[in-house]
Backbone:
């Protein structure tokens, strides 16, 4: 432990040239400040993105129809075609890599209740769609298989629909059990979805979506067994790209589409999107560490330089210390301590300010994104403090070794 005299000596040494000491300390301060700020900010952004994707199957994908781009078996090019419920059975029976194959219908409709009206995105699906995109039910329940089989006129609505059609209930109101009109047909509200806009969306904004049982929507809109979207998930050990390739082959064979047609079956690979986002954030983390450590290293070199200059300026003082009995170990400890203190004080100041800014940022976004944490882990904070101590030791090593080699006679001669 350092006594009061040693602390006073360290302060006196560092304050002899305040400007030089301040500029050197700023290098360490700025490096650690940017490292912690970028790490905490990156973590917060990652949390915010994860909130948008939460509940959505990371091994999912979607298939849509498009016009053919070449003739095949007597059919012309630029031919439109539709998927059917029979295609769902074909894929389930012939593509074992598929875990979920959920058919959907998608359109826009006019909703109303009393004097309140507006347009809503309408999504018809079976219960297994909830395994692709978790509805995060806030009130009531999700659509189930019996709703579809019995073609019940029930619906699950998004938060925006609640605000538009049931304003008297407020933003947190529960409209389950009440009725609304959609394209002149009345449906009972059985649930309120907690899905949020911003992540992967099927058709439209989930907050403005009215979900209907697929069987009910098919009957009301007279679409027969036609489906517009196939939502797929892959079994463990298989990629969504493989599953979509196999499912696309099944669809092309069933609808007489050329095997090499690139426009007839369109796809979205959500698994690839999740992988891309994960790779992006991994790259950002590596870049942040490179920037932060590079700045810290530059600051440590600055500390080493100032300590080297300080040793040069104190050559006579060190010589006198050696003459009156100071050992090389005492000289080494003196210089190393000054280096570590300068590094730790400036580094801890950087950590404190960056954590304060991160906390203010987290408080500012807490209302809209409660799950976003703009903070660093305790392990990272401890590791950073240890890194600062190590940099202080390394920065003071060369000046300390130089000071150890100073002999009293040489110091007197220089004087």
Residues:
């Amino acid at each position: 432990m350092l006594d009061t005299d040693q602390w006073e000596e360290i302060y006196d040494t560092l304050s002899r040239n305040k400007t030089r000491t301040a500029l050197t300390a700023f290098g360490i301060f700025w490096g650690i400040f940017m490292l912690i700020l970028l790490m905490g900010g990156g973590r917060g952004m990652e949390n915010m993105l994860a909130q948008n994707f939460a509940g959505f199957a990371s091994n999912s994908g979607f298939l849509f129809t498009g016009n053919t781009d070449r003739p095949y078996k007597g059919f012309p090019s630029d031919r439109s075609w539709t998927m059917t419920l029979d295609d769902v059975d074909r894929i389930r029976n012939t593509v074992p890599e598929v875990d979920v194959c959920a058919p959907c219908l998608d359109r826009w409709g006019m909703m109303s209740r009393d004097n309140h009206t507006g347009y809503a995105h309408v999504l018809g699906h079976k219960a297994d769609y909830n395994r692709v995109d978790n509805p995060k039910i806030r009130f009531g329940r999700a659509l189930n298989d019996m709703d579809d089989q019995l073609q019940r006129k029930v619906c699950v609505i998004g938060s925006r629909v609640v605000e538009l059609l049931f304003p008297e209930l407020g933003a947190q109101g529960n409209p389950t059990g009440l009725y609304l009109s959609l394209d002149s047909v009345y449906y009972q509200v059985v649930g309120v979805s907690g899905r949020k806009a911003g992540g992967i969306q099927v058709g439209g904004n989930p907050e403005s979506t009215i979900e209907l049982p697929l069987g009910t929507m098919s009957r009301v809109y007279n679409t027969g067994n036609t489906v517009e979207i196939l939502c797929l998930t892959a079994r463990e050990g298989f990629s969504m790209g493989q599953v979509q390739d196999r499912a696309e082959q099944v669809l092309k064979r069933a609808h007489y589409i050329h095997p090499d047609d690139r426009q007839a079956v369109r796809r979205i690979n959500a698994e690839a999107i999740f992988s891309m986002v994960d790779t992006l954030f991994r790259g950002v983390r590596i870049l942040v560490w490179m920037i932060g450590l590079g700045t810290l290293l530059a600051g440590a070199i600055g500390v080493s330089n100032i300590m080297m200059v300080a040793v040069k300026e104190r050559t006579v003082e060190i010589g006198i210390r050696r003459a009156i009995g100071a050992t090389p170990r005492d000289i080494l400890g003196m210089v190393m301590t000054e280096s570590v203190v300068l590094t730790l004080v400036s580094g801890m100041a950087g950590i404190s300010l960056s954590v304060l800014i991160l906390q203010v940022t987290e408080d500012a976004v807490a209302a809209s994104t409660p799950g976003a944490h703009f903070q660093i882990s305790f392990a990272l904070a401890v590791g950073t403090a240890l890194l600062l101590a190590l940099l202080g030791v390394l920065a003071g090593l060369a000046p300390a070794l130089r000071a150890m080699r100073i002999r009293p006679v040489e110091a007197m001669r220089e004087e």
